[in-house]
Amino acid sequence: MLNNLKQQPADALLALIKLHNADPREDKIDLGVGVYRTDTGATPVFESVKAAEKLLLDTQDSKAYLGPEGDMGFVHALMPYVFGAANPTMDGRIDGMQAPGGTGAVRLAVALAKKAGVTRILMGTPSWPNHAQIAADVGVEIKGFNHATKAGVADMDALREAIAGAQATDAIMLHGCCHNPTGIDYTKAEWDEIAGLIKAKGILPILDLAYQGLGQGMEEDAYGIRRVLAEVPEALIAYSCDKNFGYYRDRVGALYVLAQNADSVNIVLSNGATLARAAWSMPPDHGGAVVRLILSDEGLTKSWLNELDVMRARMNEVRAKLGGAGVQGSVDFAPFGTQNGLFSIVPLTGDQVLAMREKHGVYMAGSGRINVAGLTMGNIDKFIAAVADVTA
Ligand code: LMR
């Protein structure tokens, strides 16, 4: 029976981790998978996380099961940051459940949407490749529309056209901030328009917020999703703490539901619990418990927010330097200076991406996506020179 299975290629993005590790060149540069790095190339555990982990070690008195919804203290502690401190539940219309990382949250959102009758998801492309993989696995069609224009801004005409042509059984997937892979986010005015368009069409928004705090700031990065939620009767929100708490491998995320009233929220979440039980039973506890501890202690919260500020400032510094490089070879680096978050796309062909790796030891996704946090003041000139070389 198992002989029927065909060999599958490794996930192209995750495969880069191993390829990079196996490269003996000392000046190699890893711009692959999206993890934050310091100016020395390290991805350290947050100090606030270390402190809360110690606290957890000392105070946790049981590891007995919690249930498919995970740690609801964690789920609720995040809500003021995501939905606004003034009314984080939107009068009882929002609640959530813990999920294993952003992927688990997106998976739950797509599966719930399908269970509710969604047959197709409108999505700006390119997008995070796992969005399409998850949709295919769950059995929901993706209808792509162009996310960004050649001028490096959101392609609002394509988005308007996609929403105008939507069917009643469509959902729309939007990146809340720090668009992955382009770094091209909607402006506030564009979000205002998008919220109105979605409301008028009556389609279900699925909002993926995986990088809050890594773009313009915690509040600023929530603008878009809050604007959409203020307009629509219902929505699904997939949230990841893997980046803004540096919890990557420990998988910390949450799925939130906005519905018309608290009773409807509970019904949707009961379906979420059923799906979770069949998939992973319950999410891993550790990271969620630590985030809960951080957010329930003023000192730890302050220290975490300071750490996020430092990360954002460093990425802005890298982006400013990239943007200042102007045109090198055939690539104009100027737009990199104003894009948001960890990612940007260098317009390279597949062969040029390969040459970046083989000739220069620069590892980046096949799409030309780079993780700008992999650049440091020590390697950025080499990177820019390599791009100039392969595109000359
Ligand atoms: C990325 O896009 O690099 C991250 O979201 C990590 C992942 O799981 O793909």
Automatic annotation (TrEMBL):
Subunit details: Homodimer.
Family, per entry: Belongs to the class-I pyridoxal-phosphate-dependent aminotransferase family.
Name of the featured protein: Aspartate/tyrosine/aromatic aminotransferase
NCBIfam families: PRK09257.1
Organism listed in the record: Novosphingobium humi
Domain Aminotransferase class I/classII large: 27-386
InterPro entries, A to Z: Aminotransferase_I/II_large, Asp_trans, PyrdxlP-dep_Trfase, PyrdxlP-dep_Trfase_major, PyrdxlP-dep_Trfase_small
UniProt KW Transmembrane helix keyword: no
